[in-house]
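TICKET: design request
STATUS: open
ATTACHED STRUCTURE:
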């Protein structure tokens, strides 16, 4: 298995490794496979990627239930980190097993995947160990090579065609891991840019997932808020829905078989009707008014 840890940033404090699984010996990592500091410094987001990041942050703050979380991670979040499966682990105590949930639009037995993740004693502990040693920054690896390729979880990822993994987590003030997230992706779908985006979005993913575990009153979860109707035309609503899924004007035009200029005109009208300044604010307000389905 090839591990691609990103070098730690000087601004992040170091911390001792602490997790519930029995630690494994770290494997040697070929220096050619590592993301070098100069490569990391070259990670820059373009305007579209920055807009997608802001959109995902805004959507994450509106997540209060599991269906809302599923809609986000399998919708807008896919535009930032394309993945086949997302497995989430929440550590509720040093001696307790992690609470695990998984999300995928593929035909996957999520219950079995959760069980494999909880029972895994090779791949998951190793990912956590490397993540800890990398000062809790996102790591990239391949699961179909090396001595860990025989792990049941690694074999399941390979069966799904998702043999490349992006892993990241969160920790508390004492340095203990509080959550761990594994994005199982197809080869070529992830790289240093996606690892950088994971560094930015995983704290929001953690907060959203924790909120989704709470049994909220229906009014707080937004379940009984009536949808705002008649504010936008069907076409404007349709375009806004695709913006929520991270599509550009050109991509929306291709999907709807209209010109990008027509899409742009609809977007401008939508911004005026919603009294917002940009697409991110438009999606956020549309979600709050339940014009767009998360």
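STATUS: resolved
RESOLUTION: sequence designed for all positions
ATTACHED SEQUENCE:
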């Amino acid at each position: 298995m090839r591990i691609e840890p990103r070098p730690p940033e000087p601004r992040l404090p170091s911390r001792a490794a602490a997790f519930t699984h029995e630690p494994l010996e770290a494997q040697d990592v070929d220096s050619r496979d590592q993301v070098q500091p100069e490569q990391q410094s070259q990670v820059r987001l373009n305007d579209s990627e920055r807009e997608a990041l802001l959109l995902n942050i805004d959507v994450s703050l509106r997540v209060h239930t599991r269906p809302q979380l599923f809609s986000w991670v399998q919708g807008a979040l896919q535009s930032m980190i394309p993945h086949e499966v997302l497995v989430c682990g929440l550590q509720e105590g040093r001696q307790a097993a992690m609470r695990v949930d998984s999300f995928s639009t593929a035909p996957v037995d999520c219950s079995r995947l959760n069980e494999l993740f909880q029972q895994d004693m090779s791949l998951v502990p190793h990912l956590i160990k490397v993540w800890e040693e990398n000062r809790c920054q996102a790591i990239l690896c391949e699961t179909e090579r090396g001595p860990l390729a025989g792990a049941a979880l690694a074999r399941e990822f390979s069966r799904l065609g998702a043999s490349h993994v992006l892993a990241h987590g969160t920790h508390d003030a004492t340095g203990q891991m509080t959550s761990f997230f594994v994005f199982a992706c197809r080869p070529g779908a992830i790289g240093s840019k996606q690892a950088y985006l994971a560094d930015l979005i995983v704290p929001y993913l953690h907060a959203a997932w924790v909120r989704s575990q709470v049994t909220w009153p229906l009014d707080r979860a937004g379940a009984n808020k009536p949808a705002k109707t008649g504010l936008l035309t069907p076409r404007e609503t349709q375009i806004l829905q695709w913006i929520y899924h991270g599509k550009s004007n050109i991509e929306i035009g291709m999907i709807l078989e209209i010109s990008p200029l027509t899409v742009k005109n609809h977007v401008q009208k939508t911004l005026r009707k919603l009294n917002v300044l940009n697409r991110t604010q438009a999606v956020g307000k549309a979600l709050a008014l339940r014009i767009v389905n998360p």
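CLOSING REMARK: The chain has two domains: 3-212, 225-288. The first helix runs from residue 37 to 41.
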